[in-house]
Structure formats: C-alpha cells, structure tokens
Amino acid sequence: MCLSLVRRACFVLCFVATLAASQPAVADTTYAVSFTTGELISYDSADPSGTRTTLLTGGSLVSPSSLAVGPDGNLYIGESGDGSTFAPRISKYEPATLTLSTVYAFSGFEVFPGSLAFQGNDLLIGRNPFYSNTGPIVKLTNATGGPLAVSDYTIGGSLQSSPGLALAPNGWLYVSNQTYNFGTGIASGPVSRFDASGTFVGELIADGSSGLSGPTGMAITPDGSTLYTASIMTGTILQTDLGTDVTTAFADAGGVFEVGSLALLSDGGLLAGSPSGGGNIYHFGSDGSLLGTFASGLGQVGGIATVAVPEPTTISLAACGLLVAASLLRRRRRG
Predict the structure, then answer these.
(1) Most buried residue, 45, 147, 169, 312, by CB count within 10 Å?
(2) Do 266 and 28 meet the contact criterion of CB atoms below 8 Å apart?
(3) Strand partners, 236
(4) Could you give the 3-state DSSP secondary structure of residue 49?
(5) Can you tell me the mean pLDDT for 29-48?
(6) Cα distances (angstroms) measured from residue 265 to each of 46, 58, 156
C-alpha cells in the first residue's frame, strides 16, 4: 500500500515537473512612450499585439523622449516639455500603484532630457538633439528617493546633444555625441567615452566610422562586453566589442530615422523604437536578424525599456528524481 502511494505521488510530481520544464521562457515586459501623443504602453515581447496595454493615455505626458527602469522597479520618464509653459522634467510611473508623479522639473529650461541611465540611485540624463540642447551629462542625485541634487556629471569631451547613454558595470559611460542640423535634417557625431569619474577618455567610434551616421539610442550587455548603437541616418544598429573596441554592423531596420531608442531583451535580442513617426518597434534576434515589427501606434517612439520575467521553476524535477530512487530502493529491499 505504501509503495503504491509513493508511486502515485512520484507520478503526479513527475507530471507537474514535466509541464513546468516544457513551458517556454516567459517573455520580457516591454514599456514604450510616445513622443507624439504622450502615451505610455506595455506589452509582452512574445505577443506585442495581443498584450498591448495603455498605462497612460494620450496627453498624460508632454513630449516624452526617454525612458528607464529604476533600481526600485519604477519607470522614470524624461519629458521634454513644450518649450514654453511646461518645463522639461523627470517623471515617475509606478506600475504597482498605476500612479504618475514628478520627480524633478528643470524650471529654467536648461536641460531637455534625451536619454536616461541609472547609476545606483542616481540618474544620469542626456540631452535632446531636437531642442538644440547641448552640454555635459547631468546627474540627478537620489532620483529614487531622498534629497535631490542636480549637477554636471561629465567633464570634457565637447558634448553636443546626447540621445543615447550606456553605463558599463565598471562605471564607464558611453554617450551618443550627436549634432543635429535643422537646415539639412542630418545627424552626425561620434560615440564618446568617459571613465568612472565622468572624465572624457576619447572617442570610441568616430563620426562616419564603421557606418556610424548620427549616433542615437544605446544599449549595453549586462556583462559590459558589447555596446549597441543606433545609427539614425542609416536605420542600422552597430555593435562594438568593448574588449577590442572593434565595431561592426549588427542589424538593419531598412530606412532613415527608423532606429532610435534601444532596449535589450533577456534572451540577448534587441528592440529598437522608430522616431520616424510610423510607430514601429523592431525586434531583432541575438544574431541581428529581424524577427518582427510591431506597429505600436505610438507615432514617434520616444523611449523603450524592458523588464525580464523569471522563467517557470522546475525544482519539482529534483523531488521527482528522489521519489523514483526511493521507490526503486524499496523494491530492491523487498525483493
């Protein structure tokens, strides 16, 4: 009787474990903001159309041009404002409570956020090229909570606008040092590099080198080995091996102004939001192949960010194996 119960329990646990093991990894949650409409949406990267959810309706944000996930799990949004009455600001959206609040407003219109990157609880802020906003990267100390302080973070490097930031694990900062010519509609500039103190080190990718034409969004792998840079004038994405500083082509969205903000997926894939106005979000595999294009309906995609969702647990497999071993051992002893 006891052996029969053990076998039944083993079968049930094995069945549950097999189901858990056979399920695919849960896709990342993706967030995106619309510079055009002021919306904030979320979706499952494995099923964009079927899971698209509007978190903030149109008009809730004023020209949001950057987005980042904070260490507290909240979304931080750089709003460029309207240039006259609504000041540029950093806002916070809390997914747990569905609330939007203002973290800090640049009342003097001195900084128009164009990119964001967290350095612990401090927020590094790049500048928006479409507002002719130039100058050093700004640091907002204690952005996630505590007494706020604003200061210039980078030193040297003659930064123009900075629509892309990527912070490596060693503290080095990579910046899309973009110049946008309103007369010709052409973006140019290098990718600049700063050490952990914020001091300019040099150019990682020179203007026009390796196919770079207008550096925009950036993303860096968690181990800091590879940097991705959007080239806005060619619609391509470059990858740089930070061990050798060699830059090569990675992906192609097929058009001018088709790649802007970038975000990495947990499986090594990459998302690219289009600032062209078509609302496209491109999904590339870890090898750079185009896996899909999501028509998000956002117009100009101002920013994009991802949050990894843990895979289903398969710990019950161990219990199944132990019960199988115990059952066999008892059978041998009885024999």
Answers:
(1) 45
(2) yes
(3) 231, 252
(4) helix
(5) 98
(6) 11, 26, 33
